[in-house]
Design brief:
Elements: E1 2-3, E2 6-7, H1 25-28, E3 32-33, H2 34-39, E4 42-44, E5 51-53, E6 63-66, E7 71-73, H3 81-85, E8 90-91, E9 96-97
Antiparallel strand pairs: 1-2, 3-6, 4-7, 5-6, 8-9
Length: 109
């Protein structure tokens, strides 16, 4: 498997998927999950295909990571990271506390 012309050689013994924290530093720092990009006021572009990886060698969970080129800038009016990833917090956009059924991400494009 290659990402940005960098061959990924460290794969999980569990399912042969890449392990993010074993990637070269220059690549590891550029990959983030959708929620991590939202925290940085960016959203994943429609149709973007991410890279499924384990966060570390001890974790069997697969997360989908995206490069910055697969994201676009978003405005505060569209969606906020508080609503998307921090359930139970107060949302200044909604004007209420956030739950699994009431969050700004329902308004995202």
């Amino acid at each position: 498997m290659k990402i940005e012309n960098i061959e990924i050689t460290c794969l999980s013994e569990w399912d042969n998927q890449p392990i993010k924290n074993k990637l070269p530093e220059e690549l590891k720092e550029r990959l983030r999950t959708e929620n991590q990009w939202i925290e940085r006021k960016r959203k994943v572009k429609e149709g973007a295909v991410g890279y499924d990886m384990h966060p570390n060698a001890m974790n069997k969970k697969l997360c989908t990571y995206y490069l910055e080129s697969q994201t676009e800038q978003m405005t505060d009016e569209v969606c906020c990271a508080t609503c998307t990833i921090k359930i139970g917090r107060y949302c200044p956009i909604m004007g209420t506390h956030i739950s699994m059924t009431h969050k700004c991400s329902e308004w995202c494009d």
